[in-house]
Structures are given as structure tokens and as C-alpha cells.
RNA sequence: GCCCCAGUAGCACAGCUGGUAGUGCGCCUCAUUCGUAAUGAGGAGGUCGGGGGUUCGAGUCCCUCCUGGGGCACCA
């Protein structure tokens, strides 16, 4: 029989009999490798060591030192071990799927009784016992009838359904972890003893629809995390604790920024500190947009349903709208209004006042528009997803020929704003024509090209998300990356020929005829609520000086210094700095601690030495060092820092 | 909307198998004037998310609604 030739990562080749497994290959190299091997990459595909190789191939044998492969196998095998543990503890539980995800895995089970947090402990314990059994993992390829019959006989309907969904030409692989068997495409470790019993943890149980479909049964999903060793697991758990500390809901309370309460779910009560940050951000955005040629407007919150019927929202968006019924005097029927969920129809009304000429275009109408949407109860989350929010919304009415330059200008504005707010990197996604759409292919070609050209013009890269555009036009989504690597979609730019048409927007062209303008929906922050949440988390509450609600606390050390403390506060306020005095009868240690915890960026301590020198002792948040500076010096420094980046 | 968990003083939490509520911080008062992350003492403060039920008796058990949290679905 002809030999096959395997090429190793170092370029060496060796011949083997066809059907040789990576395990045998590893054994032929050294007994230590055979022992350490966990899997192999054969021609770019990750396989387990039992995978027979029947043709010439490139092969790399992996050990636990190969991070990516090791983690994939650990997490994947733990999913199986967990499912085995669950079925051993509760034999009536039906199994479904259990994929590897970021940092771990999950497995979905069908069981009538809910899993409790205590159950997780029991499952974890059983998993550790299984790992200690060092059960061999083996695999077989089965034909479909056998697999289906097997699962039908075992009473595993979800597995049967899965098999029906697998393409007919794909081999069905069965894996055994000891006596426990599961349908799986692999790869897996050689025995359960290769799993790190002290480097995984079951995290939570949650409901999840079978196959992600809300019409299908709800299963119980158990999430776990796993790493190569105990230290990495500990590091991960520590990281989660750190992330929890920057949770905007927690910081919002600690810094006295805002609160939510049950009489107004999803609507924010802004406290003085939080509202200060909002106003600073809003003032900044107002200046930036004015410079960029936007005109600010203000439109109604409550609008009659007839406008929403004309705009199409009544049909498409009704269930997300807050409806307001009004008994009008003398009227036979109640008048139905809706709180606006979006600003666009109102903006068209402003545009429609007075006949517009092509000379008026592009017309950029901006509004910090307060909108209300009835979000489903389960989707709300702190400031990140609310029912009452304010968009930094604007609509640009323009001709088709102006789309490209408007888009380019928008990206540059957005980029500059993100930079000023501390976000250096963002990604652009271009969503193109969906299956169901209006307009001709030529229309779409031109507009999509205009957006692509605009992105190229400003020297940005982008990815295309085919078919994800709105039914009326393509859009750009802008995702910024925060300090801990999370991405947030904030900015958007959408091309819309539809709404101007529905609401009868027109302009008189050079030719003297009436034309339909395009409408560009765009936002940079998205919503103020959500963006403030992102800012708080990005900075872990330590907002840059210009945004910080309380910028300076002037803390007296002895009461004889009180008069000078107040003088320092007055000087700072005169210079445009948000300063307050702390002349309480407390020790300086206490004051420093309290204001540090409160994330005040600068504490100025004042004792008799400072009174005599007309100086201040400066302590910056996060530092333990203190500097002595003259009063005039610190006022000048802080007055500069207090200015928004566009005013410096 | 769906599944699970939770809802006790301003905040963070304790309160076992039902016997009528406790700790820390904060707050108030007094003393202390003390140089860079918590000075000491005293005091006030809760119809235990709402409603209903079981019970001689419910923060504790049951039902229901609301809100929050973790997910899933949703986000024209």
C-alpha cells in the first residue's frame, strides 16, 4: 500500500501508512510528545488525535502549550463533561448543544425543574469527579439511520432534530467521554484527566430559546468559564470584579449622578452631578455641530397619530410607541397621540415649512431630541437601554450628488468628537441592500458607492455587512472601542429617500422643477443616556477634568484657614472652574478619602502654611503625591483644563 | 415578552427549620482644630416592593402583580 507523506511545521517530512492517526504520529516522534499531545492541526483543520489521515498533509501536533487549541479543547471537553455530570445527576434531562464561547462554554438542557445555584455546585463537584476518573475519550463515525434510531430510543428529541439539520454528506461523529456519549464534530482531548479540575467554574444559569427562536421551547443554559490553570481562572475572576467596579449603575450611585425608580421604568432621574456632565457634553456637541453647519431646532414630544400613519411608523413601529389618549372637549372620540419615538418625521415638518430651493441644500437640522420607546421589559439595562432618551439627532436634507461630501464631513466630525471624548479608535460598518427593499438596483449602486467613496476619501477602513441595510437605503454604523476593549455602536449614518417621499418633502431645482431631496439620518453619540453610561465605564468614573461634575474640592485643614478656603473657591469659580469648599470639622485624611472615593479630580488642601504663602497644596485623583503651587498659578492651570477640548 | 434569581433603614447587607427586625457605612448631636484615603462618644431612622392567602402568629410558607439583576428574544 502506498505511503502518505506528512509535512511538519519545521519543514520535515515523513511517510506513514494511510489512516495513521496524529496520536500514532506523535508516538513515532517521541514518547514524551505522545504523552503531551492533545490534538493536531491537519491541513489547517483542528482535529483530535484519533483522526485518521488518508492523504499527504501538513500536520502540527499540539500540546497544552498551544494556547488557542488547548483552550478550545478544554472548554469543549468541559461542555461534554458538564452534560455528562448533569445527566448522571438528573437522568431525565435532555441534552441539546454546548458550544465553546469567549472565556468558556455553555450547554443548553431541557429539564422541567429549574437548575438552582446550589445545583451548579453539585454539578461542579460531579465534574471534578469525572475528571478524576480519567475516562478515555473515543470517537466513531455513524451513519444517519443508526444515529437517529439511537437517539430516538434514548429519548433525545433535540439530538434527532440536530441530525436532521446536518447536511447529508457530512459524517456524523459520536464521542464517548467514558460511558457518556454525545453527537459532536469534535475535536476532543484523549481522556478527561487532561482537563484542569481547578481552572473552571460554572457561572450562571439562564433561559435560552431552542435554536434562538422565541417561538420554540425555552431551555436552561448553564454558562461556565475555563482556563488552562488555576491562576488564569483567578485572574479572569479578578478581571470580572474589576469590570463590576466600573459598572455605570454602581458608579452612578456612588458619584450621585442619577437614579431610576419603579414609577418610571427606563426613564432617568438626573441628579445635579449627572446633569452637570450631561450639560457639559451637550454644550460641547452644540458647539461642534454649529461649527459644522448644523442649525438646531426643537420639535414636539406629543404628536397626533396621523403623522405617524403618514410616516409609516404607525404600521411598522406601533408596539414600541407610547400612546397618549386625550379627551378633547366636545369631541366624539378620543384623540390618539404618540410620544415621538424618533425625530425624523418632525424634522421633515420643519423642512416643509416654506418652499425650499436647491440653494438651501444641504440643510442640516439638528435636535437634541427627547424620544420615548416602549422597550420590552427584559431588554432594559441601566442607562444603556432605556425607554426615555435624548438623541444627538440631525437630518441632512440634500441632493443625491451631495451625499458623498456630507458623509465624508460627517465621518470627520464624528472622528474628531470621539477623539475629544477620549476614544481613539472606532470601526465602520457599511450595511448594504437587503432582500426586501424599495428602489432600483441602479439607485442602490449609486448611493452605496457614494458612501464607500466618502469613507475612502477620509482615509478610513470599513467592513461590509451585506443585506443589513434598511429597506430604503444603506447605512454606516460606527463602533467605538473603550478603554477595556469593549465595542459600542454609537454613531450612525443612514441614507433615506423614503421618508421625504412619504411626507412630501420637495425642493425647486436649478431646472425650475420640483425634486425630492434625500434625507440623511445621523447621530454621533446615539443617545446621551447611553453615551454617558459608556463614558462613565470607559473612565471608571474618573472623568477628565472638563467633564467631571465636581472638579475641585478645596479642603480646609484647620478652621482658621476657612476664610482663605472660600477665597480660593471664589477665585476658581470666577475662572470657570467648578469648585466647592469643604470646611467641615473633619480631619484632612477623612476629606481626602471621601473626595477621592467620590472621584473628584483635584483636591486642594489648605492649612495655615498655605494661608501665609497664599498657595495651595494640590492632590490629583489617583496620585498620592502633593504639590505646592501659588494660588494664581493653580487658578490659571485649572481654568485651562476646565475648558472643553474644542475651546482650548 | 420568555426562563431563573433578587427586592429588609439613604447605601451595602444579615436575619436557620414561621414567634412580631439587626450590623456596617451614611445622617444628626456633642467633643476634638487634628497636614493628604475613615477621630471618638451619643442619637434618630424600617407598615421587611405592592396586593391577596395559609396560620393563634409571616420578613420568613403559598398565589399574584410591580421593579431590578443574569441570560435569551427584540432593537422597522
UniProtKB/TrEMBL annotation:
Q: What class of enzyme is it?
A: ligase
Give the main localization category: cytoplasm
Q: Where is the Aminoacyl-transfer RNA synthetases class-II family profile domain?
A: 247-544
What terms describe the molecular function in GO for this protein?
ATP binding; metal ion binding; threonine-tRNA ligase activity; tRNA binding
Pull one GO CC term from this UniProt entry. Answer: cytosol
Q: Which GO terms describe its biological process?
A: threonyl-tRNA aminoacylation
Name listed for the protein in its UniProt record: Threonine--tRNA ligase
As recorded in Swiss-Prot or TrEMBL, the protein's gene is named thrS
